[in-house]
Amino acid sequence: MCNGHDRDHKDDHPHISRRAAITGAAAVGAAAATTVASSAAAQENPYADPAEPALPPSNMKLDLSRAALVVTDPQIDFLHPDGVTWGVIGASVEEHNTVENIETLFKEAKAADITVAVSPHYYYPTDKGWKFEGALEKLMHKIGMFDRTGPTNLDGFEGSGADFMPQYKPYIEDGKTIVTSPHKVYGNDTNDLSLQLRKNGVDQVILAGMSANLCTESHMRELLEDGFEVAVVRDATAAAMLPEGDGYLAALINFRYMANAVWTTEETVANIKAAG
Questions:
Q1: Sorting pLDDT into bands at 50, 70 and 90, what band is 162?
Q2: Residue 109 belongs to what domain range?
C-alpha cells in the first residue's frame, strides 16, 4: 500500500495489470535470488572488498561548499514491495538496507545544508513510440514502469510506481531539492542534472539511488566525463538478480574501477560530519 491507495484493486488502478506482465520475470528472479543467496551463504561474500586490492586507495575529501547529494530513481517501482520490479530487485534492496540508507543520506545532506538533487525516470505516452529499444527498455515499457500520463500533468501520479517513496517526500518536496527533468534511458546526458549542479557551484557528488548497474552507474559515468568528482554510496543502491547476472555485483566492480571513492552509508555520514 502507498499513501492510502489500494494498489491491488484492478478497476481503480489499471497499472496493476502492468505488474501481471512481469509475473514470469518475477518468478525467474525469485529463483535466481534464491540461488545467489544460497551460493553466497556457502562461499565468501561476493560483495566484500578484496583483501589485497590492486587499485590505489581513494583520496577524495569532501568540501561541503561544493558538494551535492544526487539520488537516482528514488521511486516506488524500484524500492517498494508494490513496485513492478520488486520480484527481481527486492532481495537486493533488503540485503543492502537500501531504502533506509537512502533516507539516511537525505537526512544528513539536509542537516549539512548541501545541495540535494533527484534525477527521476519517467515515461510519457509519446515514449511508447520508440522504434528500437534495448532489452531492459523493452521490459520497462512492457510492464508500464515509471509511466505517467503526460509531461504537463500529474494525473494518477500520487502513489503510482513513478511516484517517490513516501518517506523521501519530506526531503524532496521541501522547496530546496532540485528535481531534474527526467532521464529517459539510464544516464543523465538526456536531462539537466549537470547544468543544475554547475549552476549551484557543485563539482563533488555523493551518488546513490537506483538501480546500481543501470541508472546509478550511468550517472556515475556521465558525471565523471563531465568533470565531477564522484563518490558512490555502495549500500544506498541495489540491483536485479537474473539468470543473465547479478546487476549489483556488476556495478560494484565498475564503481571500484572508476569512481573517485566508494563509501558505505556509515562512511558517507562520517565524511559529511567531518567536513562540516
A1: confident
A2: 16-42+61-275
Q: What angle do CA 203, 209, 212 make, to 5 degrees?
A: 100
Higher pLDDT, 276 or 2: 276
Q: Any idea what the CATH number is for the domain that residue 172 is in? A: 3.40.50.850
Render pLDDT for 38-53 as a digit per residue (tens, 0 to 9).
444 435 899 999 999 9
Give the separation between CA 170 and CA 246, rounded to whole angstroms.
32
- Give residue 122's pLDDT band: very low, low, confident or very high (50, 70, 90): confident
Q: What is the pTM of this model?
A: 0.81
Residue 136 counted as domain residue: yes
DSSP string covering 203-269: -EEEEEES-IIIIIHHHHHHHHHTT-EEEEETTS----EETTEEHHHHHHHHHHHH-SEEE-HHHHH
Residue 68 φ/ψ, nearest 5 degrees: -145, 150
Q: Closest by alpha carbon to 33, among 239, 250, 252, 254?
A: 239
